Amino acid sequence: MSFFCTIYRTFKPVDYTISTWLTLGAILQCIVVAILPRSIAVVLPVAILMYRFICGYLIAKGTLPNPITKEVTHGRQTWQIPSADGTLTTTGSKESIVVLVLSVSWSHPNGRYSPGSKVIGGYFSNMWLDANQNRESYGFLGNTPSLSTQDDGMRQDSKGTTAVYLSYWKTLEGLHKFAHASPHMKGQLWWENGAMDEFPHMGIAHEVYEVPPGNWENVYHNFRPFGICKWSSDVFP
């Protein structure tokens, strides 16, 4: 059990089915039982499991601090783009906003450990680095980390993995400027000039939404900084 948890935390668990992880954990535990004295091999995972149960109970009772709630802002909060004079409106924001939804999907049995994944990951990293370094020029407000999803109705883990990035921009013109910059164009040309055929198990998609002033909002209750509330605070504290 302890070895299964270690492997499960090291790699991205959504790239393999739960049954695969359980089988791998069982095999590793069998190896440990064969190598170490039986008392140690059995007692060690049981002790770790009991430790986690006890910690979870004490955290739930409030005896121990809960690290998960460290950044949670209790109550209600919202985020807006300040007006030119630095004020905030009490109604909808007076500024427009552009939302880019960028996605990568994998239909390979190894998910993000499949051929081509490392290369495309490098292009994505360079793109977000460029966006952060040119925030003012692009009107870049921020992006979320990779959000993994497996949309398969009632059955999970059988139709591949999709990574989604949400990013926020002040104007459509700024987003176009980012899209035509070198880091993004290198990735786009790599994909269009052969990668999409070389790696058919990977897919790329994007959606763009331009929202006019007064027609967007964000409200968070007992929520940690997330989405536009987290990343845009660096631009407009």
Task: Provide a concise account of the structure shown.
With 237 residues, this protein is an alpha+beta fold.
Instruction: Give the low-pLDDT segments.
Output: 1-11, 153-157
Cα-atom radius of gyration? 23 Å
Report the β-strand fraction as a percent range: 15-25%
> Which structural class do you get from the secondary structure elements?
alpha+beta
Mean pLDDT: 82
CATH class of the largest domain: Alpha Beta
Overall geometry comes to flat
- Helix proportion range: 40-55%
Order of helices and strands: HHHEEHHEEEHHEEH
Verbal overview:
With 237 residues, the chain is of the alpha+beta class. It has 2 domains: 2-68, no CATH class; 73-234, Alpha-Beta Plaits (2-Layer Sandwich). The protein is built from 8 helices and 7 strands; from the N terminus they run αααββααβββααββα. The chain has helices spanning 2-10, 18-35, 38-61, 117-133, 135-138, 172-179, 182-198, 228-231; strands at 73-78, 97-106, 140-143, 147-149, 161-169, 202-211, 219-223. The strands form 2 sheets. Strands 2, 3, 4, 5 and 6 form a 5-stranded antiparallel beta sheet that branches. Strands 1-7 form a two-stranded antiparallel ribbon. Helix 1 packs across helix 2 (18-35) and helix 2 crosses helix 3 (38-61). The longest helix has 24 residues, at 38-61. The relative contact order is 0.17.
